[in-house]
Amino acid sequence: MAEAVADEKKKKISTWRALGLALSNRKSGFMALFGFAQGLPPALFLGTLYAWLSEAEVDLETMGVFSLVGLAYAFQFLWSPLLDKVDIPGLRRLGKRKQWIAPMQLIVGIALLIMSFLDPKSALGWFSLLAAIGAFASATQDIAINAWRIDVADETATLDILSTITQMGFRLAALIGGALGLIIAERIGWPQTYVIMGAIMLGIGIAGLFAPDASVEKRSAATVAASEDEVAELYNAGEVTEKVRNHALIGVGLLWGWAIVTVVVFMVRSMTAAPENRPDVTEFTTTFGPLIVIATVVLPAFIAAWIAKQKQVGRNVIVSAPGVGAGHSVKFTDHLYRALVLPLVEFVGRMGWSLVLILALVLTYRICDSIWGVFAYPFYLGELNYSGDQVAFASKFFGVFAIILGLALGGWIITQFGRMFTLTLGAALAAATNLLYADLAIGGQLMQAGSDAIGFTALVNFIAGVFQMSEIEGLARLTFTIFWENLAIGIAGAAYIAWLSSIVAKKYAAVQYALLASLTLLVGTLGRGALGQMIEERGYYFVFIFTTLIGVIAVILCLAEWYRESRGKAAAGVVAPELGEQAA
After folding, report:
1. Which CATH number applies to 353-570?
2. Architecture of the 21-213 domain
3. 3-state DSSP call for residue 488?
4. What is the pLDDT of residue 424?
5. Interhelix angle for 399-417 vs 2-24, to 10°?
6. Which of 500, 552, 540, 437 is nearest to 164 (CA)?
7. Cα 31 from Cα 390, distance rounded (Å)
8. pTM for the structure as a whole
């Protein structure tokens, strides 16, 4: 008995020691910096920028056109293959990922600085161009940073810890670029605020040059030869024939090409056409959004599955391999195939039918908070009649703190109980917090009682008094509800990013992660129109009960994925080590 207690104590000490080593690791420090760099540009290009435009008396329709820069984040997977295969001349010596990360951060910083010297109303064309360039560079650095995190993870700075740190940096940046940006602008003006933010991004870009990288060798002849050898493997025995590869490449190329042209044409028309001739953003999202995802993800996945099946049954495959140089030379189409098609073939071939479960989980995991997010302010301000100051106090001050706390707590739970336990717990909590909003929709008596019972009401009233806020009646139950929801979002976010990072292959991390991440908010985005109609017809209470039930689907899928992973490890004779065991 005493030995068991001693072993348990030793295990806890080892876990905390490993956690401390992970957080003090150089990679963790840069991960926090990179996570911050991922969160700051969206806050500035898609959030506080509209406050500046409003102050400059830019009309609402033009502001709606500005929102199109967000398409860079939604469709970043379209150019993700380039980051896996294309090197920037003269920068490859920085590392496979850093050659993209640092320049993109510098471009974002320069765009912000130049914007600070422009008047949004008189130089609107240049202003929109810089915002689009900055958003594109920001989305590109996101692809590279996500792949960097997967590449550099090791037994000390584990993938779970790095994923948690990423989200903490992201949320902190959202707070600084959002709420703090508004406060600073109120005191020193918008141009000066954007100078500060641009300087921060430039500083991160320079600091990022010194970050470790999984591959920092110089671009030598040996490196080029190694890359050629990887492509030459396509001619090994058992690989599909060149004819099959070319058919697959043409199919995927046409689908992705159509998607890229569609998005670019839409953005150009929106930015250049007269107001009366501009295409409708909502109509484009609801009509072409699903078609673009089908063309870039669903149909290419079927093509990849067909190729994987050909290899599995030995049909249309190379029987004997004379080798490159003996009748076969590496071609440009071989490089394109490896960049566009092979990441999908690897993922589909490795996952098999489990891919259906994984895609279902990706589509539903964040649906509870994503599907009703755009209706949050109408609910707070219109339905519950809270003031803007009260909502800002609850969502920005307490809400952001709760997310950061949830991320930290999620990271700790992962180290103690494992990734899949935390993923399932996060899904359950995210679903359950919709019940808190259901109570708020019918008066919030339970939320008020809970807030009173733990002393939360007294804390909120005290802090609200410090800020000299008036009419604080009901503020505590609103803050109480938002606090617990955001805490759950933080826990779920830490586990989800860690899980998503764990199922992609390092070799194709940029493409595979970008594709999966693009699907995360798809159902929520497409379902908002129907949800808005449901709110009009049934009311908020019914909708919150409905979204809770939807969240239960994600919990069930998490349990199924947990079982799948456990069964796979058991079949392979592998026992996943805890964090403390990994670092010991």
Report:
1. 1.20.1250.20
2. Up-down Bundle (1.20)
3. helix
4. 95
5. 130
6. 500
7. 34
8. 0.72
